[in-house]
Amino acid sequence: MILRRQRPIPESSLPDRPSVPYRFDPDATAAGLKAAHGDLEPGVETGEIVTVAGRLLLRRGQGKLVFGQLADATGRIQLFAPANETADFEAFGKLSLGDWIGVRGEVMTTRKGELSVKVLEWTTLAETRRPFPDKWHGLSDPDTRYRQRYVDLWVTDESRRAFQLRSKLVSLTRRWLEDRGFMEVETPIFHPVPGGALAKPFTTHHNALDQELYLRIAPELYLKRLVVGGFDRVFEIGRVFRNEGLSPRHNPEFTMLELYQAYADWTDIMALVEELVAYLAEELTGSTTVSYQGRDLDLSVPWRRASLAELIHEQIGVTVGLDTPVDELRALCDEHEVPWQDSYGPGKLILELYEKTAEAAQWSPVFATEYPIEVSPLARPHRELHGMTERFEAIVAGRELGNAFSELLDPDDQRARFEDQVKAGEAGDDEAMAVDEDYLRALDYGLPPTGGLGIGIDRLVMLLADVGTIRDVVLFPTLRPEQLSAAVADDTDRTEGDGVEGGRPS
Known about the structure:
The protein is α+β, with helices and mostly antiparallel strands. Among the domains are: 30-126, CATH 2.40.50.140; 158-303 and 364-472, Bira Bifunctional Protein, Domain 2 (BirA Bifunctional Protein, domain 2). The chain has 14 helices and 18 strands. It has helices spanning 30-37, 89-92, 142-147, 149-155, 157-179, 220-228, 266-285, 308-316, 326-335, 346-357, 411-426, 437-444, 457-465, 484-492, and strands at residues 45-62, 65-72, 75-82, 100-109, 115-126, 183-184, 190-191, 203-206, 211-215, 233-241, 253-262, 289-292, 295-298, 304-307, 366-369, 391-396, 399-406, 450-456. An 8-stranded mixed beta sheet has the order 6-10-11-18-17-16-15-14, with helices on both faces. A 5-stranded mixed beta barrel has the order 1-2-3-5-4. A 3-stranded antiparallel beta sheet has the order 7-9-8, with no helix packed on it. Strand 8 (203-206) and strand 9 form a beta hairpin. The radius of gyration is 29 Å and the shape is elongated. It starts with 29 loop residues before the first helix and ends in a 14-residue tail after the last helix.
């Protein structure tokens, strides 16, 4: 190979900007300094020299002294810059809020006892060309917070804590399941047949195969194929996609934990759910009693078990069942302003009645049980109640946290239910399933008694982080299109935002 010498770039063509190093080597963090020196007395100079790096989020000058606040991934530490010791002191005092800087200095405390790094030397690592909010004003507009998460994470402590909790929750969940013999797997995101849940899929096209594919709405049918294949405890934590509306509880792409346990039934999965959630609450908040939206919530084991019929009766004082005439169920739906369609059978009407009248009223954890076969195409028939399945949903703080059941094993029954779903689709239900012939072939090889579960990770994080909308736990939520050119012009025309000190003109 012949190496050609590159022609040097003329200095006149280089941008006129401060020299920025290609790398920087901090040897200390804000959290580490506070842990090591948090008990220092006021007015102490330790003689210890450290190197830190991060964003400058506060700055104020007092004559020959400049105070700053440096934020890194672990927290914040004060910078103390005296004119007689800080290199290029005048330039340091003109830094903009949001600039990335590296600082070499001495660990000390001020006369008021504030742990600080005395700035001896410093360098710019990256300039911010847009006004950066300070910690006192933050980002007050929610839409801006979600679109500009890269700014929100610096100025909204609650946001940063929520995503740190999310990361730890996923890690703890993996470890908890692995300790119980579960194996983590990865299954396809592109599905040739949409299935595994009642939801409208996103559709795409594979050019090379000239084939329509669907972003997965659930990994369920692939995970159960693996149980057929001999992996008797499997789980997956991954993105799923549903072409549905936006709400405080819904984002078109979200994270799901799905698991399957051979030789288990729905009662085993109930125990697993309540034990896992109680464990995560204890680990992440220090207690199984958490505060959510201003109310206490006891997540300790055991949770209540109650049928849909019981929960409906508690709310509207009427007992319903699959033997209730359809006309009576429709009249109840009308009375309680529950929409229905002519194609709905008794099971679907009961589910709609429950979801619109009873679900939101369940504050304390409850396993809502005994779902009709009509609305549970993948669940095993109840061993005692005709027309019902061994399915439950975990309801906490008035919303569904997870869905689970004893899995349907009979390939003939499964085929019939798939075909019923096809009829529902032909009648206008765009969330109905299709017939998955390969999955039916897998069932022909034999699926042992199995319990399965799906938990929405985002909703679980919302619960334990005490936030009311899914957008606060999804780093980059789906939003309506932004008028970006106008937004960019608006930002770059300003030299200072509200409460911003030291904003740089564009």
